[in-house]
Amino acid sequence: MHNIKLVLTGLAASALLTTSAIAQKVKSAGVPAAVKEALAKKYPGAADVNWEKEKGNFEANWGGKSKEDNSVVFTPDGNFVEQVVAIPVNTLPPGVAAYVKAHYPGTKITEAGKVTDAMGKTSYEAEVKGKDLVFNEKGEFVKID
């Protein structure tokens, strides 16, 4: 019986950790003022913004039909982390399509984005089967995000 309790406790802890990594919708009122001010200063044209909280940071999404053509992440104190701009799938570096074809045969890239971090480094995201695959600027696979 003691072993069952340990297993159940472990499963519950694992579930909590897993769900905390998933993005959660946040109302504007739940976004720190420093984050809203940083967004307004860096992206004054951002309108009709939807907010999410993921990995402790705040993500602002706006633009396009999906209202996610632009995505910007800030720390809770308003420091810029990264920007993701939606791009046409056919503009990804050639290595991305080759990787997806080899590792996810018969699957299409459903969304693509160009990522620029706070240091100005560029990478790319390709959404495949609900996962964000991250590639460097040369189109070489880096990780699943």
What can be said about this structure in brief?
With 145 residues, the chain is an alpha+beta fold. It is built from 3 helices and 9 strands.
Provide an overview of this structure.
With about 140 residues, the chain is α+β, with helices and mostly antiparallel strands. Helices cover about 25% and strands about 35% of the residues. It has a 9-stranded antiparallel beta sheet with strand order 1-2-3-4-5-6-7-8-9, covered by helices on one side. The chain starts with a helix and ends with a strand. Mean pLDDT is about 85; it is low at about 1-20.
Poorly predicted tracts of residues: 1-20
Structural class by helix and strand composition: alpha+beta
Listing every helix as H and every strand as E from the N terminus to the C terminus, the arrangement reads HEHEEEEHEEEE
- Spatial ordering of strands, largest sheet: 1-2-3-4-5-6-7-8-9
Q: In the residues, how many domains can be counted?
A: 1
CATH class: Alpha Beta
Give the overall average pLDDT.
86
Radius of gyration: 18 Å
Distance between the termini: 38 Å
Please bin the fraction of helical residues.
25-40%
What characterizes the major β-sheet?
9 strands, antiparallel
CATH topology value: Nuclear Transport Factor 2, Chain: A
Q: Helical element count? A: 3
CATH architecture grouping: Roll
Strand content: 25-35%
Extended strand count = 9
Shape: elongated
